[in-house]
UniProtKB/TrEMBL annotation:
Record-annotated membrane-spanning stretches: none
Species in which this protein is naturally found: Herbihabitans rhizosphaerae
Keyword Metal-binding applies: no
Keyword Signal: yes
Signal peptide bounds: 1-25
PROSITE patterns to which the protein is assigned, alphabetical: PROKAR_LIPOPROTEIN (PS51257)
Region annotation (Disordered) ranges: 201-258, 338-357
Key words of the record: Signal
Name of this protein: Chondroitinase B-like protein
Length: 357
């Protein structure tokens, strides 16, 4: 008696052997290819599937390796800077994504050196979604420049010995953050252009004559100064909706050139400027100005502290708000919870008011 399962096996073997080569009888494979031989001539080998491409960590040790990494990085990649000096100007041109930013990180002993304060951007970003973490940037005309970028985070860097401004986001750069960084010794080439953090562009430099909408940029918990010759944070006309919170300003070395006479100069709209503290300013701690029609308005100053002494000029204020008449119903507001020692002419040019949390 033949069992049902055995019959099925027998039929399968019979069908398979119908295509057997003459080698089958000699003990070869019953499927036409000897077990110890390559596929028949003319048949391509089965390709090995490529390994999936995902985020990678790449350690760089030379300037050439850093330059290549800035061009070749993919979303989610991490570029690790070994300690050492990386001379030159570097461009970061590969884009990350909102959920997979590209990270460039290192310790303070990893130093990107621009080789001179007279020209060039030491680190230039023209692609979005980067995280710059931990390392040092020094000795360039510009420190870090973001042009038309979104979602960049500058975290825990030291930026110093810079010819003009240290960190600048412009030409439609939005939703970027500078935080927990130490910025000092700027304006070594031109003191009037030695800002610590700079959002947007002056009206004279607006691209195509239209406002530079570098909106919703933020500066959090940075240490700015000493020897920042311009404003600690310069907020340009044309920008809207950012935040400057929790920063510490040291005004020693501020020169007053080109309006660089305050910790924060707000010429954009609708910024929250809160919980900052400062020691010494060239003239005033915080100020607003209208440099382009419709801008310099709707800014709120709350819970700031410190003293503009001992450097402040006799004609300064803690809060120098002189343009509210140009703002209509979008006035700037100084809240009554600020605790900033008055300048030579007093606390504020406008009456502080209660502000809701």
């Amino acid at each position: 008696m033949i069992k049902k399962g055995a019959a099925v096996i027998a039929v399968a073997v019979a069908l398979g052997c119908a295509a057997c080569s003459s080698e089958t009888a000699g003990g070869g494979s019953p499927f036409g290819v000897a077990a110890d031989r390559a596929p028949a001539a003319g048949l391509p080998p089965v390709p090995t599937p490529p390994a999936p491409v995902g985020p990678a960590t790449r350690t760089v040790r030379t300037a050439a390796e850093l330059a290549a990494a800035g061009r070749e990085a993919r979303p989610g990649d991490v570029i690790q800077l070994a300690d050492g000096v990386y001379p030159g100007k570097f461009q970061l041109t590969s884009a990350g994504t909102a959920d997979k930013p590209i990270t460039l990180r290192g310790g303070r002993g990893a130093v990107i050196d621009g080789e001179g304060i007279k020209e060039g951007r030491t680190v230039e970003l023209t692609a979005s979604h980067w995280r710059l973490e931990g390392f040092t940037v020094r000795n360039g005309q510009k420190g870090i420049m973001g042009i038309g970028v979104t979602g960049t985070q500058v975290i825990g860097l030291e930026v110093h010995q810079i010819g003009d401004e240290a960190v600048h986001f412009q030409h439609g750069s939005t939703d970027n953050v500078v935080r927990d960084s130490f910025i000092h010794d700027t304006g070594k080439r031109r003191p009037g252009f030695g800002e610590g953090v700079y959002f947007g562009s002056a009206k004279s430099n607006w691209p195509g004559g239209q406002p530079d909408r570098s909106d919703r940029n933020k500066a959090y918990s940075n240490r700015i100064g000493p020897n920042v010759t311009g404003e600690g944070v310069d907020i340009k006309e044309g920008t809207t909706g950012g935040e400057v919170r929790g920063n510490t300003f040291d005004g020693a070395g501020q020169t007053g050139e080109n309006s660089g006479e305050s910790w924060i100069n707000a010429k954009g709209n609708d910024y929250v400027i809160a919980e900052n503290t400062g020691a010494g300013a060239h003239r005033s701690g915080f100020k607003t100005r209208t440099e382009a029609e419709g801008f310099g308005c709707g800014n709120t100053f709350r819970a700031n502290s410190g003293s503009v002494a001992p450097f402040a000029k006799d004609d300064g204020y803690a809060f120098d708000i002189t343009n509210n008449r140009q703002c209509g119903d979008r006035e700037n507001v100084v809240c009554d919870d600020n605790r900033v020692g008055p300048g030579g002419k007093g606390l504020s040019t406008i009456e502080p008011r209660p502000c809701r949390p």
